[in-house]
């Protein structure tokens, strides 16, 4: 299962997120759930950096399927908030369509 955790303040500001694990929906290289999650997450990170100009600390481990992203500056720009809301929407749709056994979203207050 891929566990995605979004970290937000008490006022709802995004602090970052982690994406951990392979979905296990199919064999590596054929796993459409894992591919969809990866595309959404990586595209969001690229958009945050290249379009919105956000500064982030990003750590990845391809073997373990882990991505950690934390935002350097607070609060995020409005464009960045929209990118993050879009990521939550897309991943939520994957969770809804394929089930929490493959993709699970959680939110933690920090």
Task: Give the radius of gyration.
Answer: 13 Å
Largest sheet: 5 strands, mixed
The amount of helix comes to: 25-40%
**N-end to C-end Cα span:** 24 Å
Oligomeric state of the chains in view: single chain
Mean pLDDT: 96
* Secondary structure tally: strands: 5
What sort of overall outline do the alpha carbons produce when their principal axes are compared? globular
Secondary structural class? alpha+beta
Strand content: 25-35%
Low confidence ranges = none
Count of individual helical segments = 2
N-to-C SSE series? EEHEEHE
How is the largest sheet built, in terms of strand order?
A: 3-4-2-1-5
Question: What would your notes on this structure say?
Answer:
The chain is 36% helix and 30% strand. It is an alpha+beta fold. Strands 3-4-2-1-5 form a 5-stranded mixed sheet, covered by helices on one side. The longest helix is centred in the last third of the chain and has 21 residues, at 78-98. It starts with a strand and ends with a strand. The mean pLDDT is 96.
Question: What is this structure, in a nutshell?
Answer:
The protein is an alpha+beta fold and 110 residues long. The chain has helices spanning 32-50, 78-98; strands at residues 2-8, 14-20, 56-61, 66-71, 103-109. Helix content is 36%, strand content 30%.
């Amino acid at each position: 299962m891929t566990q995605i955790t979004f970290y937000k303040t008490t006022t709802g500001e995004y602090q970052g997120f982690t994406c951990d694990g392979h979905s296990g929906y199919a064999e590596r290289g054929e796993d459409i759930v894992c591919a969809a999650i990866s595309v959404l997450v990586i595209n969001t990170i690229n958009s945050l950096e290249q379009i919105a100009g956000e500064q982030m600390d990003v750590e990845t481990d391809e073997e373990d399927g882990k991505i950690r992203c934390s935002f350097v500056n607070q609060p995020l720009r409005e464009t960045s908030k929209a990118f993050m809301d879009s990521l939550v929407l897309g991943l939520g749709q994957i969770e809804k369509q394929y089930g929490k056994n493959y993709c699970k979203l959680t939110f933690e207050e920090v």
